[in-house]
Amino acid sequence: MNVMHISDVPTPALTVDVTAMGRNIATMAAFFKDGACRLRPHFKAHKTPEIARRQLAAGSVVGLTCATVAEAEVVAPFCQDILVANEVVTPDKCRRLAALARTARLTVAVDSTAGLEAVAAAAAGAGVSVHVLVDVNVGQNRCGVAPGDQALRLARAVHASDAVVLDGVMGYEGHVQPMAGRQAREEAARKAMQGLVATAELIRSSGLPCGIVSAGGTGTFDISGRVTGVTEIQAGSYVLMDSDYGRLDLPFEQALFVLGTVVSRPSADRVIADCGHKACSKDHGLPSVEGIEGAVVAGLNDEHATITVPADSRLKVGDRLRLRPSHVDPTVNLHDVLYAVDGERVVGVWAVEARGYKTEREGLRLA
Amino acid sequence: MNVMHISDVPTPALTVDVTAMGRNIATMAAFFKDGACRLRPHFKAHKTPEIARRQLAAGSVVGLTCATVAEAEVVAPFCQDILVANEVVTPDKCRRLAALARTARLTVAVDSTAGLEAVAAAAAGAGVSVHVLVDVNVGQNRCGVAPGDQALRLARAVHASDAVVLDGVMGYEGHVQPMAGRQAREEAARKAMQGLVATAELIRSSGLPCGIVSAGGTGTFDISGRVTGVTEIQAGSYVLMDSDYGRLDLPFEQALFVLGTVVSRPSADRVIADCGHKACSKDHGLPSVEGIEGAVVAGLNDEHATITVPADSRLKVGDRLRLRPSHVDPTVNLHDVLYAVDGERVVGVWAVEARGYKTEREGLRLA
Fold first, then answer.
1. Non-local CB neighbours of B219 within 8 Å, separated by 6+ positions
2. How many CB atoms neighbour CB B211 within 10 A?
3. Pick from B265, B302, B365: which is nearest to A44 by CB?
């Protein structure tokens, strides 16, 4: 089957508006072009090399951020500076991480001595240097050591280890990202970054290296990215966007859509489309319907979207529609490919290469 | 990498307790062994041929139910009687459906004349007969025509079409499945089934064939499956189960678990594991922690589970834990493989072959 027109795309499917995406990439690159703070786009948002290559090519970018070792394995062929902004603690994953350090500058987050020892053992075993950022809890209350003395203690342990290199600190202000009010978001992000930057200064004043201070996301890129001392921003969602970030005052456009087909119009006020929550994550709430007056998603089941419509709506069986997902990352993670579209023309079928956990890549088999 | 012990399985991953699963399959087969009503297990719950083969081998089973044409394509090599219990309306999907009718008895749900015409055109084009069930709304208010006259009108249209064969009706009482109280569930299921059976009688009394009355799910298998006139039950979740169905008084055991690793213990009362909502769907709520006293999942992010624990918990970085997912279908759909385990021993690595939308199977490429 050849695909050249959007009407040839089998539904449900994800489409990417390449023009809108290009503008998002350019807008973000322009913001970081003075170089005081750099961008390290988060690959987890889309898991798609064709998009990551465009982010790298746009400039102002120091490398890529990944959430898992498997994502890092996917970007390693085309990216030489990778941050796994997450804790990696098991021997198998640490070995895979260390293997990547043979060809890339590879940095990982650490928030425990047990985690540090696991990374260091793998690095020593592989004969490579793995760079480390001490992960600091800046208020999200997920991973991370406390700012200040606790972070300093872990930094000392990292610096004392032969097999790893202390590069600095990271702290993700994830709790701040969704705050809709600009002022509240600014205050919360600055407070989080002040604690992170002060921790970096404490580490440096103790004679340890701490050149990198990594933080930020799509909701705070222009706040945290202007705090003196912050050197890298890990934003990801900006490139495709979702309706959750769409509530905020951000200079990015929706570039990702779930394409569906109406399979039933059982009553005047209701249509059913083939794009359920196996095609569109609802973990941040229900998606919205793009460009159809009065159409509202009332619910998603596995393979069904129930959409209420005005009684005079002309939507009928076989018609296509587009949903704006509420959360980009888990929605892309449901699909094997993205259809890149320029208007009505399909200009690419891009593999979501890092989708899932790709255990088969490791050649798993029963003994 | 060889896998023989559960400790070799890289996390996050899904494990299937084959003993518990076997008991679930046997329990369900025993219920339907008198043959008045038969079981047609729903493949969408697990999308895994290795599981479907076991369901077919256990007996009392008339064939498989699928939610999509892509699922039907996966089961066609080993199942000769397939119901796509969903509307299929686009020319491309109808062609694929008709192609399957060359080797299987293939039945599809229809709830509109537009949908009927699409299926009939594809069947005529392929020179095959496609069987049809008129989809009746039994109260779920998703797809389906109204019971009674509206269903009869559509049944007449199906019967009048040369390329399709009217087999009967289906009606999914999806709104009844999660009702925790047995009596309320019984009353609601019987009410839904009475409307469906009465519709079947109306169609038969009008001189049309209506031998099949298909309905039911895991929450109603032993209610709807004992209503006189109901001939097939489409239950799926029973084979692996989830914590949502676990609230009900069902004779099935949890056989599916999300295996995770503790990657951080940032405070006495909190551990972070590597199994977030990209590994465990939260569309039916947060998962529960299996077998660890006082441990509660407080939140899931993409790659993180935040779990509160008692301060004296000995859970530490590197330890493994298991989550009981709240919804089996979308959780399995996140993974490429299931690890079949017998105690601590891995006895199979099963492909979730129908995961996602598998557009690559169609050989999509740009023109």
1. B176, B177, B178, B179, B185, B245, B248, B250
2. 10
3. B302
How far apart are the C-alpha atoms of A301 and B327, rounded to whole Å?
A: 11
DSSP state letter for B61: B
Q: Do A264 and B2 touch (CB under 8 A)?
A: no
Please classify residue B136 by burial: count the beta carbons closer than 10 Å to its beta carbon, then call 0-12 exposed, 13-18 middle and 19+ buried: buried
Q: What is the mean pLDDT of chain A?
A: 96
Looking at residue B45, the DSSP 8-state letter turns out to be G
Q: For residue B300, list chain A residues with Cβ-Cβ distance below 8 A.
A: 283
Which residue has tokens 């050197």?
A231
Query: Is the separation of the CB atoms in B85 and B65 below 8 Å?
Result: yes
Q: In this complex, do A334 and B316 lie within 8 Å of one another by their Cβ atoms?
A: no
The size of the A-B interface in CB pairs under 8 A is 220
| Backbone φ/ψ region at B293: left (φ over 0), alpha (ψ -120 to 50), beta | beta
Q: pLDDT digit string (tens) for A283-315?
A: 999 999 999 999 999 999 999 999 999 999 999
- Distances from the Cα of A108 to the Cα of A67, A89, A140, A287, B250, angstroms: 10, 10, 19, 34, 46
Q: State the Cα–Cα distance between residues B57 and B197, nearest whole angstrom.
A: 29
Q: Which residues of A touch B67 (CB under 8 A)?
A: 302-303
Gap from B32 CA to chain A (nearest CA, Å): 26
Chain A hits for B1, Cβ within 8 Å? 92, 362-365
Terminal Cα distance for chain B, rounded = 39
Angle at CA B153, nearest 5°, toward B150 and B159? 140
CA angle A53, A355, A296 (to 5 degrees): 100
Q: Which residues of B touch A340 (CB under 8 A)?
A: none
Contact A302 B337 (CB under 8 A): no
Q: What is the pLDDT of residue B35?
A: 83
Query: In a 3-state reduction of DSSP, which class is residue B74?
Result: helix
State the Cα–Cα distance between residues B100 and B82, nearest whole angstrom.
9
**Run of H or E residues at B166:** strand B164-171
User: What's the CA gap between B167 and B209, in Å, rounded?
Assistant: 6
- In this predicted model, what pLDDT tens digit does every residue of A99-133 receive, in sequence order? 999 999 999 999 999 999 999 999 999 999 999 99
User: Do the Cβ atoms of A366 and B347 come within 8 Å?
Assistant: yes
The residue of B96, B242, B333, B359 whose CB has the most chain A CBs within 10 angstroms, and thus the best one to mutate to test that interface, is: B359
CB contact under 8 A, B366 and A348: yes
**Residue A247 CB contacts under 8 Å (≥ 6 apart), including other chains:** A180
Which residues does chain A have within 8 Å of residue B317's beta carbon, measured at their own beta carbons?
87, 89, 112, 114-115
